[in-house]
Write a structure and sequence with these properties.
about 15% strand; 11 helices; about 280 residues; two-stranded antiparallel sheet; homodimer; TIM Barrel; alpha/beta
Chain lengths: ~280, ~280
């Protein structure tokens, strides 16, 4: 056991070195990763919607308790119409807590003005990526903004109910011929409900896979419910293996949508399970 | 991924079939195991000391939320001097909650009378095993009780502070030549603090390994602290592999000794991590 532990630490150290050159997370993020050795290759984050019922201080307290250092910030933590002072205050709270805001979203965009607001917000929050959902007719304009501001967009799939992007293939077909800074935030729960094969999706869309919302669901059908990671139907061992295989360089952000007024035990179980899989898959 | 999922379910089903013939957990326990597929080969339980600050109802509520079906009952849930009516009431609560009380302990025994009390209690609680700590001079008498009542005893190691059984070897040397129903409850955290090599201990003492207290610790030294599973120094992948290798037939009971007035998130993270390792190690 001592030998395998030593090997494991060496592997983790190599992973760290590799992560330092990732295009999707910066140097500050890499140092934050050192807090959790199992995440050297696949850092774990939180999608801000998880904390929909809580203020920023409570969200930070939960992230600290869970030792999670990456946040996809959502308007619940920082409204899109925040002024500079409000933005500064919230960003400084996360910075003091050693939490890296690595993207913003999910941001829905139905007008050009909403696209402008989203990109201006991203610039002010100092992220280089938006997780967003522009309508089809806004994709040209969105692409112009991506080019003009050098801010990536990861379009999020939202399951069978979503008329625009139910599954990852519906995102990919709309961005594959566009600027390479336009990609996919694969929500594995919604994708599973939409009938997507996760392994195929990750392999097929790997060149545009910018972000992940990880969660579990009770079944591969529309009305399946959110559940703690490990209790549902998603095969996380297979997921981690394919993410390693494609050399995924983004964050795995847990979006927990059960028990939203008392989510901490469920988030903790979910993160524990995912970290356990990370520790055991080489 | 669909294929690996199918294979995984098949493996779990085979594990279930194997578990039905285990000597350490009965048929009722096997049906309880069906609630969590990853635990077909290594069921997860809770050591009752984890709920030291809570009454039975709150302990049951936490176990239900965590979907854990095995309890090593401790005097906090049911005092050793309980009368028949009190025992009946507590047992019925756990039974209604579909929680199997598979052992009782840790019970400390410093007099013959305390040995008598422990074995009478085990009989009334209807468990076939005590997790206990008899002093050396009581081992002959304890062995007589084991033979007379056909109740096993798993002696618990409690780390460097423990003058009797700091590490698993200190238990094994005292029981190896005694009745085969005398064995070890290996506390992996205390064993690690005592300098034991867990893989060696499990291999060397496999014929007498009846129970496990699983947890993590911040280091392999006396003053190391309890911490959420996965955050410490214990290699759970290696642990699960050696438990599979020896075909361990007992329960893996989490004993969480941090944040004891607010333990649920830490227990959840710990159980999640362990289940994640179980899901990924074949």
């Amino acid at each position: 056991m001592k030998n395998s532990r030593r090997n494991f630490i060496q592997k983790a150290a190599l992973g760290m070195a590799g992560a330092a050159s990732t295009p999707f997370i910066g140097q500050a993020a890499v140092s934050a990763m050192e807090t959790f050795k199992t995440e050297a290759r696949l850092p774990v984050g939180i999608a801000g919607y998880t904390f929909a019922k809580f203020d920023v201080d409570k969200a930070i307290a939960m992230m600290n308790r869970l030792d999670v250092r990456f946040l996809s910030i959502k308007d619940m933590q920082l409204p899109l119409n925040s002024n500079d002072e409000q933005i500064k205050e919230v960003l400084s709270k996360f910075k003091e807590a050693n939490i890296k805001i690595y993207t913003a979203g999910v941001i829905y965009m139905k007008t050009k003005q909403e696209v402008d607001v989203a990109f201006d917000y991203a610039k002010k929050v100092a992220v280089d990526m938006i997780v967003g959902v522009p309508t089809y007719d806004l994709l040209d304009y969105t692409e112009q903004k991506v080019k003009a501001m050098n801010i990536k967009i990861a379009i999020h799939n939202h399951g069978p109910e979503d008329k625009l992007y139910p599954g990852p293939q519906n995102v990919y077909e709309h961005i594959k011929n566009r600027d390479q800074r336009m990609g996919l935030c694969l929500d594995i729960g919604h994708a599973t409900r939409a009938g997507a094969n996760l392994e195929d999706a990750i392999n097929d869309y790997k060149d545009r896979l910018f972000d992940l919302h990880i969660k579990d669901v009770t079944g591969a059908f529309k009305d399946a419910k959110a559940i703690e990671i490990g209790r549902g139907v998603i095969d996380f061992e297979a997921l981690v293996k394919v993410l390693y295989k494609i050399n995924y360089k983004g964050v795995c952000s847990i979006e927990f949508e059960k028990d939203m007024t008392d989510p901490l035990p469920g988030i903790a179980e979910s993160i524990g399970f995912f970290r356990g899989v990370l520790a055991a898959v080489s």
